[in-house]
Write a structure and sequence with these properties.
The chain has 11 helices and 12 strands. It has one domain: NAD(P)-binding Rossmann-like Domain (Rossmann fold, 3-Layer(aba) Sandwich). Helix 6 links the parallel strand 7 and strand 8. InterPro entries: ComplexI_NDUFA9_subunit, Epimerase_deHydtase, NAD(P)-bd_dom_sf. One of its GO terms (molecular function) is protein-containing complex binding. One of its GO terms (cellular component) is mitochondrion.
Amino acid sequence: MMVSASLGRPVPRPAARRPPQVLLRSVAVVGVLTLCWSTSFRDRHEESAGDGTAFSHPQVTPRPESRTSYGLRASGQASEKGSRRLLILGGNGYVGREVCKLSVERGWQVTSLSRRGENPEPGNPQLDQVRWVKGNAADADTLRQLVGEADAAVHVSGSKSVADETSTYDTVTRKTAFNLINALKQKFRMPFSAPTPVMFVSAAEAGWPDVNFGPQVEEAAPGWLKEYLMAKRAVERELTSSRESIRPVMFRPSLIWSWTKFDVLPVIPVFNALNALGVPFVDKTVTVSTLSKAIMAGLEDDGLSGVQRFEQMEQLETRI
């Protein structure tokens, strides 16, 4: 309450004005367009590890007989981590291959499971050391076989921007991740052993319910976008509820890019400008290098868990 200087009577404060419906609708439209851009470009560069057309049983592409010692020479930490084994779901996609390269450099023994099961860059000194497995992560038996050999896991499997009848977001994201989580829970663990590190690449938009205008933006989104976010959030919840056997780290990148991806470069300034202006539902973009290094830092930091947004990813990158 305010007091009138002339009459000494309390004067009520004016009621807070609610944003007009036109503004809310405009914000929602901008948000949906933002998500369409982000999801379309991000998923275009991800490789699916679970697909209706994939093989039910894993097929392994053998490593070259003449292996280099590149990974063992990469750093002083490589020899320390040399015996650790990493399983990557979707390792030959845009993000996955960068994680594979960095993991080999730091001395990890890497296995990649994807529906293609092929080395995306034959002759690359790091990727030639990866064990490429062709199979379907939506098949629980396939994952149980591979998880039994792994000390840590990375889920970076994506899909097409609009899922079809044989490759849905529920299949390529939720089902494959749940199979991974369940396989890790069933895996024999020594008493008092540390939880298994699991890195999951989610999406910045998964946090929309927690930001201003986020719910309105999502309400205006088309059905396939809602399914995309539902799948991401379902995995985040399952990981969080499995902390007894898993150390979950969930990365929420917005648009992922590099200077070689000319199709996304025009929209990078738009995303970053909107974030700098304080638009709550648009996160700053991250480079594929930043994301892959953040994932590696998450694997190697036994105390790290929970959701990592772009600020945390940029900080984690400096450790690698």
